[in-house]
Give the backbone structure.
Amino acid sequence: MNPFEENVQSKRNDAIDSGVGFGVSFVFFALIFIIATVIDYAAL
């Protein structure tokens, strides 16, 4: 057996971690978009 398979650091489901990563990045880019829209609107 592979020695890395014997000593696993995390037994959590990878789909949960992927979903959290997607959510965090989505909120980050949405926040940047909202800030840019507010600045663009205020510059008129």
Summary: The longest helix spans residues 14-42. The mean pLDDT is 92. Residues 29 and 37 are 12 Å apart (CA to CA).
